[in-house]
């Protein structure tokens, strides 16, 4: 389906041979970064057939001029270029743009690229090889952040999760363990899971797709090389999504995907975040909470947390215990990498298995 505005334009001879990889590039007012981004497509060392599918989401800057300039050079190097878009007064959003770029493309595999990021030359080659081996997985990669000192804890988390943690840490506030700007997957699998939610600004379309991918049994694989320069700036679309929106989706997915496997559980953190999680749970899930645990002597001395806003009578009073007196499994509401290693040491001392005995939620 074409968007209103102007039809997709492709290089001549597009139908002559099947395309192996389509690079999916939504664009909205990206003139600051497009030259570097498109140059990185040209520099790919993948030897198979490749296509660039661009969807321009109502850009008002010089993005289209830059795209047209690069089109001839890309086509001259053998990369098919498909351009679609619309010039409505306002953009339709990232989910819509990605769906349109995918619909107008033809590759057997999809390589997602944000217009403010830069691919390393080996990205398509290495991720394509991984996707062929893992046809029902989302393939990611390690990243290099720009500026280098922005979001240091988050970048460390992206790059250093162990393979099993790609599945066990899917509930944290960091979002998808394989981050959207690095995604690569087969078209067949995308069609099985997708499309992206098209709710527009303020909708975490990547998180919603990620959850659906997991519901359908999809795997997660990270190529352990830095294959993307991942830019951080105030204008990034991710900043338009409210924390409360993401929180709600995270809690519901925790209740759907993890808590049914546990008859009871303990919330690790009797402070603000732990209490917030408790209050956010459905009544059925709250009934499974047997205790909070903590290291704060003042919270432990009080002995319980009373849920004052509850409609139940008497109001629920949940015990607060020292973590060594508490029973797993735990839903952990303590942010990692913020206590100088003290929390991590306490957790390791219990000899628990992540996924089976505890999950991270913060």
Automatic annotation (TrEMBL):
Cited Gene3D superfamilies: Spore Coat Polysaccharide Biosynthesis Protein SpsA, Chain A
Residue span, Glycosyltransferase 2-like domain: 22-193
Taxonomy, superkingdom: Eukaryota
InterPro entries with a match to the protein in the record: Glyco_trans_2-like, Nucleotide-diphossugar_trans
Name under which the protein is recorded: UDP-GlcNAc:betaGal beta-1,3-N-acetylglucosaminyltransferase-like protein 1 isoform X2
Source organism of the structure: Balaenoptera acutorostrata (Common minke whale)
Gene: B3GNTL1
